[in-house]
Specification:
This protein has 324 residues and is mainly α. It contains eight helices and no strands. It has a domain of 198 residues. The radius of gyration is 40 Å and the shape is elongated. It is found in: Endoplasmic reticulum membrane.
Length: 324
């Protein structure tokens, strides 16, 4: 009844290789249409095979003949200057339009100094930009922020234009304001203080650039020096014609000239003690603003002290007369 168990051996299982699926009818149609379109674009028939692309042979460039170097002093044309030394740039155009708009609306006795100051600043900026690339530039001792333009024209005309614009506003309300004349005279002194500070800094730059031997730089220095001298003549004529001279006029002139000396000392300190932190124009703007601000504080403090002393002296005299 019992049969011995059989051991059945099965053959080893080998997986069938995967056969890639055939593309569908839609995919085949898309492929044929794309190939026919490509052949038509290449100029062949719709059933032509793709054209054979011929390899491009590299061609070695033909060397240009080298020109002999021109001897020094032969009068050969110099290479073109950098864009920063061009006469007309976007920054200078904007500053010129702003200053011209303010000067045209101001009285001639106040607009003429601003025009002379702007001309001197433009000449100094051109000279500074053209001498910046020279290795023997006298202004290399002042290390400015790398990559920034000098901005001397912008720094020299910003505060005077602001003061002059404020004077134009006050001149329109003088007939209706009883205290307007006093405030107008005060702002007029502030305008001259700012202008003298900027002109003194420009003269400081001109004094450092006088050692340059470049013809273009020397021409710009000549025009800049002429503008600064004309500005000083205008300043002296303004105070001589407005006042009768005397101690008060001399005191005002000395007060304003002290602003110029302080601005020169301050910008020299800024450029030497804080290297690579500002440009020439930014240093000029900061130094003139600080000098005018602290000069105004000092003038107000001295005037209040003088009034208090004068009031005390008057009260003591009045008490002595009563005692007698």
């Amino acid at each position: 009844f019992f049969q011995p168990s059989r051991v059945v051996s099965h053959p080893p299982h080998h997986p069938k290789p995967s056969v890639p699926a055939r593309p569908s009818y839609r995919e085949t149609t898309r492929t044929r249409r794309g190939r026919a379109t490509l052949n038509q674009l290449l100029g062949a028939g719709p059933h032509a095979s793709p054209p054979h692309v011929r390899p491009v042979r590299a061609v070695s460039p033909t060397p240009l003949p080298s020109l002999p170097p021109s001897p020094p002093g032969s009068g050969s044309p110099a290479p073109p200057m950098a864009s920063s030394s061009a006469l007309l740039t976007g920054e200078r155009l904007v500053v010129f339009l702003f200053a011209a708009r303010v000067a045209l609306a101001a009285p001639a006795r106040l607009a003429a100094p601003l025009a002379l100051l702007a001309g001197a600043a433009l000449a100094v900026e051109l000279a500074v930009d053209r001498s910046a690339a020279a290795p023997s530039s006298p202004l290399r001792r002042f290390r400015t922020r790398p990559g920034a333009s000098s901005g001397i024209l912008l720094g020299a005309t910003t505060l005077p234009c602001v003061m002059l614009a404020r004077l134009i506003q006050l001149s329109r309300i003088l007939p209706t304001d009883p205290n307007g004349a006093q405030e107008f005279a005060y702002l007029e002194m502030q305008y001259w203080a700012v202008s003298i500070s900027c002109a003194s800094v420009l003269a400081f730059f001109l004094w450092h650039l006088r050692q340059s031997a470049n013809n273009e730089i020397s021409k710009a220095l000549k025009y800049g020096s002429l503008m600064v001298v004309l500005y000083l003549v205008t300043f002296l004529l303004f105070f001589l014609l407005k006042t009768d001279g005397g101690l008060l006029a001399m005191t005002k002139n000395g007060y304003l000239l002290c602003h110029g000396v302080a601005a020169v000392i301050l910008i020299k300190h800024i450029l030497e003690k804080f290297p690579s932190c500002s440009s020439f124009g930014e240093g000029l703007l900061v130094s003139s603003g600080l000098v005018v601000y602290f000069g105004d504080i000092l003038a107000r403090t001295l005037s209040k002290r003088w009034r208090s002393l004068h009031h005390q002296e008057h009260s003591y005299t009045h008490l002595e007369l009563k005692a007698r």
